Amino acid sequence: MEYVGINKKTPVIASYDVVVAGAGPSGMCAAVAASRCGSSVALVERYGIVGGNLTIGNVGPVMGKVSNGTMGEEVTGLLKAEFNQQAPDIERAKIVLVDWLQDEGVEVYLQSPVVEAVTEGKSIKGVVVGTHDGLASILAKVVVDATGDGTVSYLAGAACMKGRDSDGLMQPASIMFTLGGVDEKIAIISRGETKDVNKAMVPAGSFVDVCKEANEKGLLPKNVDIVRLYYTTRPGERLVNATQANNIDGTSVGDLWKGEVDLRNQMELVVQFLKQNVPGYENCYVQTSSNTLGVRESRRITGTYILNDEDLQQGARFNDVIVHNVNFLVDIHNPGGAGQAEGKAAAVRSYDIPYRCIIPETVDNLITTGRCISGTHRAHASYRVMNICMALGQASGIAAALSAKKGVLPRNLKHELVQKELTDSGVVLFE
Ligand SMILES: Cc1cc2nc3c(=O)[nH]c(=O)nc-3n(C[C@H](O)[C@H](O)[C@H](O)COP(=O)(O)OP(=O)(O)OC[C@H]3O[C@@H](n4cnc5c(N)ncnc54)[C@H](O)[C@@H]3O)c2cc1C
């Protein structure tokens, strides 16, 4: 038995070409893409469920436009929920995603949080996971950090950024929940913008104004003045995105508890508000809620390129593009109060994400993906949504597999090879 890691006392339980840490939308796609490129792949997840925010976080609908042909299309197809419109059926998602990973030959380690990185000099060689038998190491030629929080990168010594430049604050955390008992014939949907409602009229006009007034009167939680109500795949059900805990650092265990207590209590007030003020919601009740609070923003890894605000404004194009024609608003849920940080979410011009954004500046053999890639606070607010994270995962998995196969560091891998693999599989990268 080989021993590595903490005081060289951690048994090595397996070795792979590629280890992906985190089975969220991005990590699952990275694992499948790497496997399709011929790599042996382990997907390591801290919880007992795959899907990340999509399942554990009760998050939907899948949002964020990218060019045609990415893995996001494949996954959205599996989920059978309308892109950008309907929240997926989470119970169904748990089954189809498990089957997908199994069919694609990915070896999944559940209930295995990564607690340390196995490093040698400035290279990562694997991860140490907590198991029911104690700590164990899983080695890999290339590691993909898909933890959302950039935990593996941080543990391996990668340079990270957190929060906005002005005060370091990050976007608030939320608990998402679904409501049953909604009268489908009259109940509105609301996406948080001003053109908010369909079906029945809400007394006192705009639903946005109704929410603001309720917030001022203390009928909604302190920082909640928008209640987003999405369709799901089930009639008579809505997914609610409303609760909001500010000043939470999703990588601080103390803050996570503080947020959990606050947000669980906020849910009751939101439901009461809906029952008493919004037609069609009189008999609603909480059907499901996220298993843990949802973290929108935490660590962002400093890569060899940092995607920035101008790139989004100008619709930047890059020679080393790996995700093309990305389009989603700069959606900054206010880190310092209610509503949107900038009054309104800003539009972007469809932009590209370059390969350099997934390559950490300071650690070798490591690739990042999903919401922890390299970008500014504002850029992150746009690319963090699930369809974009899945396209990133696909590219990251391919890059990891090719690096492992060729025995080159990801930073030295020719980006054209990743692009070729992506375009061969049907992804549009260039006009
Ligand atoms: C409240 C909320 C509402 C949102 N609404 C939408 C929406 O409507 N539409 C949309 O498209 N996006 C939405 N988003 C954004 C989106 O859900 C995330 O940004 C996206 O899921 C990021 O994907 P990911 O794979 O990078 O990370 P995640 O989905 O966070 O997945 C990371 C995975 O890594 C695992 N992990 C973390 N640490 C470790 C560790 N140490 N060891 C092993 N595993 C680990 C986690 O358990 C998880 O499974 C929302 C986010 C939040 C929080």
Give short descriptive properties of this protein.
5-stranded mixed sheet, binds flavin-adenine dinucleotide, 8-stranded mixed sheet, single chain, alpha/beta, globular, FAD/NAD(P)-binding domain, 10 helices
Query: What gap, in angstroms, lies between the N and C termini?
Result: 52 Å
Number of individual domains: 2
CATH architecture of the largest domain: 3-Layer(bba) Sandwich
The assembly state of the depicted protein chains is single chain
Ligand types: flavin-adenine dinucleotide
Average residue pLDDT: 94
Helix content: 25-40%
Instruction: Report the total helices.
Output: 10
Low-confidence stretches: none
Task: Write a structural description.
This protein is α/β, with parallel strands linked by helices. It has helices at 25-36, 71-79, 90-103, 151-155, 207-216, 253-277, 309-314, 377-383, 386-406, 415-424; strands at 3-4, 10-21, 41-44, 86-87, 107-109, 114-120, 123-131, 134-145, 160-162, 177-180, 228-232, 238-241, 285-289, 299-301, 321-326, 351-354, 366-368. The radius of gyration is 21 Å and the shape is globular. The strands form 4 sheets. Strands 1, 2, 3, 5, 6, 7, 8 and 17 form an 8-stranded mixed sheet that branches. The chain has a 5-stranded mixed sheet with strand order 4-11-12-10-13, with no helix packed on it. It folds into 2 domains: 3-165 and 297-332 and 351-424, FAD/NAD(P)-binding domain, CATH 3.50.50; 177-289, no CATH class. A hairpin with a 2-residue loop joins strand 6 (114-120) and strand 7. It is built from 10 helices and 17 strands. The structure holds flavin-adenine dinucleotide. Flavin-adenine dinucleotide (FAD) binds next to helix 1 and helix 9.
